[in-house]
Amino acid sequence: MEIVGSMWLVVALATLGGFAFLKWVLKSVNPWVYESRLGDLKYSLPPGDMGWPLIGNMWSFLRAFRSDDPDSFMASFVSRFGRTGIYKAFMFGNPSVIVTLPETSRRVLNDDDAFKPGWPTSTVELIGKKSFIGIPFEEHKRLRRLTAAPVNGHEALNIYIPYIEKIVVSTLDKWAKKGKIEFLTELRKLTFRIIMYIFLSSENEEVMDALEREYTTLNYGVRAMAINIPGFAYHKALKARKNLVAAFQSVVSERRMQKKTTTHSTKKKDMLDALIDVKDEKGATLDDEEIIDIMLMYLNAGHESSGHTTMWAAVFLEQHPEFFKIAKEEQERILKKRPPTQKGLNLKEIREMEYLSKVIDETLRLITFSLMVFREAKTDVNISGYTVPKGWKALVWFRSIHLDPEIYPNPTEFVPDRWNDYNAKAGTFLPFGAGSRLCPGNDLAKLEISIFLHHFLLNYQLERLNPGSKINYLPHTRPQDNCVAIIRKNKPSQN
C-alpha cells in the first residue's frame, strides 16, 4: 500500500510539474517573439507581464471588466511590479506599454514627435481612416482647424442652444407622462437626435431611430477584437458602418447637388453645409470620404458620451440630495437674474453655472467614459527611465489616473465640492484626452449636458426602479438595466 501511495504521489508531483512547465513555456512565448528582436533594448523595458500567446492580457482584462471590480486588472500590475506608472503588456493584439500616472501620460499625449495614434484596427476601420483618430499629425491639424469653429466656436454654440433647449423641454415632459422608461436608452436617443439636427438638420424620428440602432451596433464593435466572422461584434459593426456610410453618402451627394442648382437658399446652414463649404488657406475643400468619416466620428462620440454622462450626473445628484439642492439653487438664481424680455438660456448663463460645471467634471472623472486612449511609438522612446520600443502601443489608462487616491482623496465617491478652488494639475484630469488630439467636440458635449441638467434640476426628479442593478463596464460604464426609472415632474409651486 505504501508503494502504491508513493507511486500516486510521484504521478501527482510529475503532473503538477508538467503543468508548471507548460505554463512557463506559454508565458515565455510573447516575450520571446516580441522582446528577443529588440537586442539590448529589452533590458530597459518596463516591468510587466505579456500574458498568453496571441491573447496576451486580454483574458484577464475582460475578466476584470466583466466583474464588479474592473480596477483589479491594473491593481494586479501594481501589486506585482510596484507603482512604476508604466508596465509592459500584450493588449488588443499588440505588444504594449500601459501608462497610469499623470507624468507618463502627459508625455505620451503631448509628444507628437515621438507618438502617433495607435488605435486598434477595429476602431480605425469602424470610425474611419479619414476621421481624427486615423490620420497623421499634419492632416489632423488641418482638419481640426477647419472644423473647430463649426463645432465648438462661440457663434456655433449660441446657434445650437435654442434647438437643444426646445427638444430637452419637450422630451422631459414626454418622459414624465410615459411612466417607466430606460433612462439611458432614452437619453442616447435624445442626444443622437440633437446631434443629427446640428449636423444634418434632420428631425425625422423614424430615420433617426434606425440610424441610432446602427450606431449602437457600431459602438459595440469599436473596442472589440477585429474578428470578421458572423456572430462577432466586429462583424456586426462592419455591417452597421456600411449602412451608415451609404446613408450619409446619399445625404452628402444630395446636398452637393442642391448647392449646384440653387443660387440662394433661406434654409438654415447646418454642420454638413459648413463641412462642404469650408476651405483651407490653399482653397482645398474636404472630399466626401473625409466629410462622412468626420460625421461618423462626431455622431458616434457626441451621442454616446453625452448620453452616458448626463445619465450618471442625474443619478449621482439623486443619490446625494445635498448636492442636488445646491445645483438646483444655482439654476434658480440664474432664472431670477434673467431679464423679462429674454426667452430661454444663452451661452453667458451656461458659463455662469459654476457648480453645475463641477457636477459635470466630477461625473466625468468618476465614470471615465473612455477608460484609455491608444498611441504608437514612432521611434524608441525613453519615459521615466524605461524604453517604449518603436512600433509598440502606448495605452494611456485614464481610469487609473481619475481614481488615484493620491490625486483624488476617496476617489470612488461623488464629491463635486472637491473642485472648489481646485486647479487640476496637468495630466490629472483627462475626460477628453489632452494635447493636440483633445476631443474636438468637448464644448458641445458639455453644452448639451448643461442644458439638460438645467431643466431637469428645476422641474423633475428621477426615481430608479432598480437602484441595485449590476454595473457593466464595457464598452462604457452603465447600469445593466440601462437605468430603468420614472421621471416625475415637480408640482407647481403654490406661492
Automatic annotation (TrEMBL):
Q: Which CDD domains match?
A: CYP90-like
Please tell me the species this chain comes from: Hibiscus trionum
State its role: Catalyzes three successive oxidations of ent-kaurenoic acid giving gibberellin 12 (GA12), a key step in gibberellins (GAs) biosynthesis. GAs, which are involved many processes, including stem elongation, play a central role in plant development.
Quote any Pfam family the record assigns. p450
Q: Which residues bind heme?
A: C439
* Residue ranges of the TM segments: 6-26
Cellular compartments annotated: Membrane
**Pathway(s):** Hormone biosynthesis; Plant hormone biosynthesis; gibberellin biosynthesis
**What InterPro entries does the record tag this protein with?**
Cyt_P450 (IPR001128), Cyt_P450_CS (IPR017972), Cyt_P450_E_grp-I (IPR002401), Cyt_P450_sf (IPR036396)
One biological process term in Gene Ontology: brassinosteroid biosynthetic process
Which UniProt keywords are listed?
Heme, Iron, Membrane, Metal-binding, Monooxygenase, Oxidoreductase, Transmembrane, Transmembrane helix
Topology of the protein relative to the lipid bilayer: Single-pass membrane protein
Q: Which family does it belong to?
A: Belongs to the cytochrome P450 family.
Q: Which cofactor does it need?
A: heme
Q: What's the protein name?
A: ENT-KAURENOIC ACID OXYDASE 1, cytochrome P450, family 88, subfamily A, polypeptide 3
Q: Name one GO molecular function term.
A: heme binding
Q: Name one GO cellular component term.
A: endoplasmic reticulum
